[in-house]
Amino acid sequence: MPVGVSHQRPIGGGAVTSFVVSVRDLAVQYGRRLVFQGVSFDIAAGQSLGVLGPNGSGKTTLLRTLAGCLTPRSGEVRIAGLTPRDALTRTGVAYFAGDATLPGSVRASRWGSLGNGDVVTPDRRPIRALSRGTRQLLGLRTVLGRHPLGLIALDEPWEALDPDAARWLSTTLETKRDRGAALVLSSHRLHDLAGFCDSYLFLLPHHAKVVHAHEISATSPVTALQLAEVFDKVRGGAMSLRAVS
Amino acid sequence: MAHSVSPLRFFRVVPTQPALIVWTFLVVVAIGGIAIARVPSRSGDLMRPVLLLQLFAASSGFEVPARRGHYDLLLTSGHRRIWVALVHWAISIAPGVLAWLVLAVVEVTARGDADTHLLASGTCAAMGLVSTMPWAITVRLPRFSGGIGWLLVLTLSTSVLSSGRMPGSSGANEVGESIWSAWEFLVYPVVFVGRELSIGDGLIAAPALVLALAAMVAACRWVSRTSVPLEAAQ
Predict the structure, then answer these.
(1) A85 and A159 belong to one structural domain
(2) I need a surface site. Which of A51, A173, B84, B98 has the fewest CB within 10 A?
(3) Nearest by CB to A88, which of B5, B68, B78?
(4) Judgement on whether residues A13 and A127 belong to the same structural domain of the protein
(5) Residue B6: exposure state from Cβ atoms within 10 A (0-12, 13-18, ≥19)
(6) Which of these, B17, B42, B103, B63, lies nearest to B223 by C-alpha position?
(7) Interface of A with B (CB under 8 A)
(8) B52-68: b (≥16 Cβ within 10 Å) or e
(9) What is the pTM of this model?
């Protein structure tokens, strides 16, 4: 099947010599169901990859594979030269799959203390009693509070956040990226990732392609409209996503 | 390596069993402690509810919360999965073990000698069995499945296999008696509470304890190697 292969882009005018994340011909399946195959990309330190695709295309599965939670059927994943499981012990990896993954019975203040030990929130209510956006923010602040982080993999991170929280997230991710972390961010909403990432992985059923931001727009930040046009081309123009963006 | 949460700290924040189990242990210990202090010879009887509760406390289940993503923070923290599994098990059985030890201390204090029922080798074997097998069986199942299944097997054993014979009753011949006794200890370990195991008793208990150890090894190995997909992502 088609393979998305990245071409490294120099950062700050210098040549990129090493990748934090290197994925080659990756395939994952649940039981007999193949989720995706032939996925390849590289991410250097201080770079970010946006993973775009419709529901069920395998965005969450890809991120869980990078985080060492899933064993791929075939292909190779290397994080700082190590397998994802080994990388967890050597390289800081922050992974969050959304507010639904937080245990509802645990008090918010106690969950927040699991990050780096600092108090993330004084709220003593059970997590299930919080609003969805507050839960999402709690989960993000807990995983992103850890440091140092070599890889940050976040699944739909802007989902349900209010404008202030969304701004905090963007600023925090930019700061982490400037400090050398590699980011992998998934979303099915194009405007979340437009202009934020150095490259984009379009993940479709049985089809994956990596497109770099400078290939979409050489002079200005990528817009959601431009991403939608590229997405339409990648998927053969079968359905426009502009309404979504 | 980034600052990471230890398995022990994580499972203190994210309990492996509902608070109701812990509160029930407290009630059982309070009532049992008073009863043992008044009549120390009844300690064996008062250990039964602790073993029954432990059956369910140890049936905490690992895969279901893991697949809901509840353990993601821990599983991506860089700690070896084998430690995650062992700490999950230890936290699951800790309330029951503590309840047992508290009652044993009360018994020793009340009797004033070392001849205790609750620290007898048979009691230790029974406690070991109900603290390991249910956890190992339930590791891939929903919470309490091991306890429920165990009670079902016990009920079937008493009503079908022995034609109505209750646990603790004797068999027809020597070989049949040995097999039945080994099975009896496996499904109803309470029969050994308060007994100092003889060599013969040890041979009867050995198959169940070996089976429990093998189940624990298999469960820990599974936790160490398994993929943990999200329920919603499949």
Answers:
(1) yes
(2) B98
(3) B78
(4) no
(5) middle
(6) B63
(7) 30, 33, 60-61, 64, 67-71, 88-98, 100-103, 105-106, 110-111, 113-117, 142-143, 146-149
(8) bbbbbbbbbbbbbbbbb
(9) 0.89
Element (H, E) at A139: helix A132-144
Contact B16, B91 (CB under 8 A): yes
The last residue of one of the domains, among A78, A112, A147, is A147
Q: What is the pLDDT along chain A (245 residues), one digit of tens a residue?
A: 333 434 444 333 344 447 789 999 999 998 888 999 999 999 999 999 999 998 889 999 999 999 999 999 999 999 999 999 988 888 889 999 999 999 999 999 999 999 877 778 888 999 999 999 999 999 999 999 887 889 999 999 999 999 999 999 999 999 999 999 999 999 888 888 998 999 999 998 778 999 999 999 888 889 999 999 999 888 875 444 443 43
Total domains in the fold of chain A? 2
> Residue A158 is encoded by which pair of tokens?
């802007």
Which value does ipTM take for this structure?
Answer: 0.87
d(CA A128, CA B127): 35
Render the burial of B199-223: b for 16+ CB within 10 Å, e for the rest: eebeebbeebbebbeebbeebbebb
Residue of B62, B63, B73 for testing the chain A interface, max A β-carbons within 10 Å:
B73
Domain check: are A43 and A70 in the same one?
Answer: yes
Name the residue among A30, A67, A149 with its Cβ closest to that of B2.
Answer: A149
Q: Which domain holds residue A121?
A: 98-147
Backbone phi, psi, residue A44, to 5°: -90, 170
Closest CA to B228 of B74, B3, B89, B60: B74
Q: Say yes or no: A38 and A139 in one domain.
A: no
